Please model this.
Amino acid sequence: MSLTALLASGCASTNSGAIPAGNNTYVMSKQAGMFPTGKEPLLADVLTEATSFCASQKKTLKVININENMQPIGNFPKATVLFSCEN
Model:
């Protein structure tokens, strides 16, 4: 991998995808990349992706819990949503 590709991959945000967390319950998170500005739309992105995940099952998103860490000092900004997909 070239140095440019390595640096570019470090700058990108990461998304966990929907991770099963129990009976019809999922966790999804998104974390900012190496140089966060603190203005990344992480929560909006996670909610949009969770909504799409449920829609792919012909169900509706039901948010159970939201956790946001938007402080870039000492930790990358991250948004995590615990949700279920309801009929």
